[in-house]
Amino acid sequence: MSFNNTFLRAARGEVTDYTPVWFMRQAGRSLPGYRELRKKYDVLTLTQTPDLAAQVSLEPINLLKVDAAILFADIMLLPIAMGIDVKIVESVGPVIDSPINTKADLAKLRPFEPPKVDFLAQTIKLLRNDLQVPLIGFAAAPFTLASYLIEGQPTRKWLKTKRFMFEQPEAWEALMTTLTDATIEYLKVQVAAGAQAIQIFDSWVGCLAAEDYRQAVLPHTQRIFKALGELDIPRLHFGTDTAAMLTDFANVEAEVIGLDWRIDFAAARTLLPHKVLQGNLDPVAVVAGPKVFQPRVDQMFAGMTEHRNHIFNLGHGVMPETNDQHLRELVEYVHGK
C-alpha cells in the first residue's frame, strides 16, 4: 500500500483528489478496541506505554479509514513531565490537588527535560513503522494548560484563571512564558521522533474577551508557531468559542485554522481567505446519524468548486456516545463529495 499524503497536501493548501478527513479524539473514546483496553488500564498508563498508545492510535486508521492519525496522548503529559502531580478522574478529567495560586507557586514547575517524555518518542517511532497516513502530534496551548494548573480541574467559569491573569499580570506573564518555552521543546521532541504535522489545542481560550486574548495570550501562541516554522511541517491551530476573535486567533504562523461548530463555515472562509480551514461538523450530528449529518455536510460543501483549503473534521472531539459505524459512514460520505 502506498503512502496517502492527501492530508499533508491539503494542509499546505494544495488541490487534492478529495477532501481528507480525520477526527479530533478519534484515537480512543468511542472505539471498541480502546474500550477493551480501558478495562485493564487507566488513561495515563495507556498514554505512557508505547505499544499500547500505538495500538490505540492505529485503531481509527484501520476501522474508520481516516486520512491522518493523531498521537494518542494527553495534554497533561507536559505538566506531569514538569513535576506537577496530575490525576485523571473518571467523569471529571484532569485534577491537580495543589494548583497554582501565586507567583511563588510557579516554583512547582520544573524545567522541561525531553527524556521525561521518551515514551512519546517511542510511540511515534512505532507508529511511523506501521502507518500509511501522516501522523499528527499535538500539545495544549499555554492558556489551556494554565487554566488547568490554576483551576485544579476542568471548569466552565474560569474564575480563578481570569482573576490570576487580571490581578497578577507579572505572575501570569511568567507562567505563560514558562509554559511556552516548554511547549516548544515538547513539540520538537515529537517532530524529531517522526510527527509530520502539529496541532495546538487552545480548547478554553474562547472564554476570554478578544482584547484580553490579544494582550495576554496571543503573543505566547505566536511564539510557539513561529518556533515550529523552522521544522517545515504543517501547523494547525484549534480552539473553541473563537468566533468573536477568529481573525486574532488566526493571527499566527499556522497553515490550518480549526473551527468549532459554532462558526459558520462560509463566514469563516470570508474572514480567512488565505488559510486552510479545518472542521467543523457538530459532534452531536454524528451521534444522531446519517440522516442528520449528511445534509449538514452538503451545506458545508455547497459552493466549493475544488478540493482545496479544507480538511474535514468535527467542531470538537468525537463524543464517547458515538457509534463507530456512523464515523465510518461519515468518512465515506465526505470522501465521495
SSE diagram, text form:
Blueprint lengths: L5 H6 L20 H7 L4 H5 L2 H15 L4 E2 L6 H5 L5 E3 L3 E3 L22 H13 L4 E6 L1 H10 L7 H9 L1 H25 L3 E6 L7 H7 L1 H12 L5 E5 L6 H4 L6 E3 L6 H7 L4 E6 L1 H6 L1 H12 L8 E5 L9 H12 L2
Can you give a write-up of this model?
By secondary structure, the protein is of the alpha/beta class. The chain has a single domain, classed as TIM Barrel, CATH 3.20.20. Helix content is 46%, strand content 12%. It is built from 16 helices and nine strands. The strands form two sheets. The protein has a seven-stranded parallel beta sheet with strand order 1-4-5-6-7-8-9. A two-stranded antiparallel sheet has the order 2-3. Helix 12 links the parallel strand 6 and strand 7. Helix 7 crosses helix 8. The longest helix is centred in the middle third of the chain and has 25 residues. It is globular, with a radius of gyration of 19 Å. The model has no long low-confidence stretch (mean pLDDT 96).
Concise summary:
This protein is of the alpha/beta class and 337 residues long.
Structural category is alpha/beta
* Percent helix range: 40-55%
| Tally of separate helices | 16
Fraction of residues in β-strands: 5-15%
Rg of Cα set: 19 Å
Q: N- to C-terminal separation?
A: 23 Å
Named CATH topology = TIM Barrel
Biggest sheet architecture: 7 strands, parallel
Level-2 CATH architecture: Alpha-Beta Barrel
Specify the overall morphology.
globular
Specify the CATH class. Alpha Beta
The number of domains: 1
Number of DSSP-assigned strands: 9
